[in-house]
């Protein structure tokens, strides 16, 4: 009986376990499908947001590029409308002045390098002479030290100290001379650069005055031509009895301007 009860309980437990497992698997599968749907929806929403942000950014970039291209085209058109002859003349004089300044700068730099090399050589010679003298004195003192006693050794030390002081003085003098040479080279270079800049400024001021004079001359010449055309038109209109249609057919732009001014003056007098 015990074995029958045990087998029945075992069969019931296995049946209950399989039923609970199927139920658990169904719930897990439903939850997984829900999670997958939510993940797909979130991914789709993220893609939509990315596309919307990219479109908005592209619109802003296109608007900025369009404005920049308009400004650039306007600037390019303004540059092309300038006077080519005066621009070329100005550029030639400026280029000549700049080349002169560059040549002067290169010459000054080369002179500065040569002065530095000469100063360095002079300092090395002085240092070498002082070292040579010091080495000679040291060798003499060393030979005397080997042959002399303690008294002569003290005298040797005094001579060595004097030679070292001499060497130190020579080194300080060489260093001061090098500093003076550097200052002199820098002043020479600054003078040459200032001269080149002064010449360039004079050329630029002359070109500016020439442009102003040319503008005034051209304005006066233009006003003279307009006045001559007005006098010619007025003489023809007053002295020669010509029909209005004939005048309108043969009038120039200057005559047109003069005619409109006269008509405006007559209207004001009539009113």
List keywords for this structure.
single chain; 271 residues; mainly alpha; 5 helices; 95% helix; flat
Molecular structure report:
- This protein has 271 residues and is mostly helical.
- Helix content is 95%, strand content 0%.
- The protein is built from 5 helices and no strands.
- The longest helix is centred in the last third of the chain and has 90 residues, at 150-239.
- It starts with a helix and ends with a helix.
- 3% of the residues are buried.
Kindly state the number of beta strands: 0
Outline: flat
Radius of gyration: 51 Å
Helix run count: 5
* Major sheet characteristics: none
Compact overview of the structure:
By secondary structure, the protein is mostly helical.
Task: Describe the secondary-structure layout.
Blueprint: H1 2-80, H2 84-147, H3 150-239, H4 244-250, H5 253-270
Helix pairs in contact: 2-3
